[in-house]
Specification:
Layout: H1 2-17, H2 21-43, H3 46-55, H4 72-79, H5 82-98, H6 105-126, H7 134-148, H8 152-170, H9 180-201, H10 211-243
Helix pairs in contact: 2-6, 2-9, 5-6, 5-10, 6-7, 6-10, 7-8, 7-9, 7-10, 8-10
């Protein structure tokens, strides 16, 4: 994958360094940051999800903690084909943006990130996690970081964060509240890294005629990866919170710092 991504990666570096175009991309990354900051908090409606549970016969579900009284199979049934909904929306949005070519990429990235974070927020809420909490918002951003990782090393950085947060929550450890300035800074850094990755990945949309197919196809592919990651990670966390932290598979050592320090965080944008 590193070899296959090399042409787009180099083309992305060239585009980032191009006067004028660099400004468009910077605006896109800044837009992604502002959207990512609060999107999970704004767009997911927990009460509507709890109402779905009640409609399926689980009448006592009114808050996140109530969901842990259910069996995993019951939650899976209510979640249903959630990913199919998001793949359909992403396909249509990406195809429309792809028709515009390069000018459509900034808005497309903001829309795609908004959609993916909403999907993550829904999965989190279905499996009993309160996305208004700092640790949950960081976990959601790292799910996005994992799904967008172009290399094994960046996947490991994301997994280290996911393992740390999942363990802390499952062990009922008190999450030390992060200073708001530091929390916002970390969210911005992760958002910047993800924004740069998506910008490079979507450069193929500038190809005439094929842009719509490529844009729609990539968006559906990407949100499928995000939904798959969220589905399995939140199911594992549900089981860990219900039956103990030992359920969590330790793929990497838990992170010691809340910022994964993705290399893209330090890429300068002219």
């Amino acid at each position: 994958m590193k070899v296959l991504n090399w042409p787009l990666d180099k083309a992305g570096d060239l585009v980032f360094a191009t006067p004028g175009v660099g400004d468009v991309i910077r605006s896109s990354v800044q837009g992604v940051t502002s959207v990512c900051n609060d999107i999970a908090h704004w767009s997911v409606r927990p009460e509507a999800i709890y109402s779905e549970f009640r409609g399926d016969g689980h009448t006592a579900i009114t808050k996140p903690a109530d969901i842990f009284s259910l069996d995993l199979e019951h939650i899976d049934r209510v979640v249903g084909w959630l990913s199919a909904k998001y793949k359909g929306i992403a396909l249509a949005e990406g195809a429309g943006a792809g028709l515009l070519g390069l000018p459509g990429i900034p808005a497309d990235i903001v829309a795609l990130l908004s959609l993916t974070l909403r999907a993550i927020g829904e999965y989190a809420t279905y499996y009993g996690f309160d996305i208004s909490l700092q640790q949950e918002r960081l976990f959601a951003m790292n799910v996005l970081g994992l799904a967008s990782s172009p290399t094994d090393s960046s996947k490991a950085l994301a997994m280290a964060q996911l393992v740390r947060i999942a363990q802390d929550v499952a062990q009922k450890q008190t999450w030390q509240q992060i200073e708001q300035h530091a929390f916002v800074q970390v969210i911005q850094q992760i958002s910047k890294a993800v924004g740069i990755r998506l910008t490079k990945a979507k450069l193929a949309q500038v190809i005439p005629v094929a842009g719509a197919a490529i844009g729609g196809g990539f968006n559906a592919y990407f949100i499928s990866k995000v939904c798959d990651a969220a589905f399995y990670l939140y199911r594992e966390r549900f089981l860990a919170n219900k039956y103990g932290a030992d359920v969590i598979e330790i793929t990497v050592e838990p992170a010691k710092h809340i910022d994964p320090h993705y290399p893209e965080e330090y890429a300068s944008i002219p």
